[in-house]
């Protein structure tokens, strides 16, 4: 398969996803996907063994049908992505590699093992997780929490370090608790050197934000 054909598919997919998700309001919109795509390309500069086409397609399609918006059904995203790529004429081995990324990219609870196996998947997973932390991560988690009706903060509700995916995806805790249940854990779960460096600064920003949040909540600032 000629590389110019693959690049054409990447550009076609970017246009398709942009049209589908532009204006979405939960923090899983086109611009989230765009940032994951760009972060993927940045991380790839330090991972020369990774396949760029598979990585880019994985980044662009990783949220094509997120389980959070399909009653917790993890099979929808991989199925929709497969059907889309088959329609383009992508080779089966490349489709399978992209589907693997989509199947395993999501964080599924503090006690759940990461089952991502491919180097391309580890890159895209880092790119996605970087967009869940830092200033963008703060904004996105409040956007999502509000969209599903979760309280912003409940001082009487303790965070839960979920030991399995079922309890994690059924959680209806506060947005502030989500920092402790996921966001603050991601720094130590980055796979690539480039992502680890970026995550350090973004993690520190979230810690500063939480200190300020509690100070304002308690009327100290």
Automatic annotation (TrEMBL):
Listed InterPro entries: HD/PDEase_dom, HD_domain
Transmembrane parts of this sequence: none
Positions of the HD domain: 29-133
Pfam families hit by this protein: HD
UniProt name for this protein: Phosphohydrolase
Organism: Persicobacter diffluens
UniProt lineage: Bacteria, Pseudomonadati, Bacteroidota, Cytophagia, Cytophagales
């Amino acid at each position: 398969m000629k590389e110019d054909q693959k690049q054409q598919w990447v550009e076609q997919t970017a246009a398709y996803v942009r049209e589908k998700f532009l204006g979405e309001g939960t923090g899983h919109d086109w611009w989230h996907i765009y940032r994951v795509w760009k972060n993927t390309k940045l991380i790839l500069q330090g991972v020369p063994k990774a396949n760029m086409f598979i990585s880019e397609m994985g980044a662009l399609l990783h949220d094509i049908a997120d389980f959070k918006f399909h009653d917790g059904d993890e099979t929808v995203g991989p199925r929709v992505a497969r059907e889309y790529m088959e329609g383009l004429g992508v080779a089966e081995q490349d489709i399978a590699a992209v589907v693997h990324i989509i199947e395993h990219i999501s964080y599924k609870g503090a006690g759940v093992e990461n089952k991502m196996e491919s180097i391309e998947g580890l890159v895209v997973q880092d790119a996605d997780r970087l967009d869940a932390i830092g200033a963008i991560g703060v904004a996105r988690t409040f956007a999502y929490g509000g969209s599903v009706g979760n309280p912003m903060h409940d001082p009487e509700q303790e965070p839960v370090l979920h030991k399995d995916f079922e309890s994690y995806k059924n959680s209806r805790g506060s947005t502030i608790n989500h920092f402790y249940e996921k966001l603050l854990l991601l720094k130590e779960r980055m796979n690539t050197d480039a992502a680890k460096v970026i995550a350090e600064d973004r993690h520190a920003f979230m810690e500063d934000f939480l200190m300020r949040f509690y100070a304002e909540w308690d009327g100290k600032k």
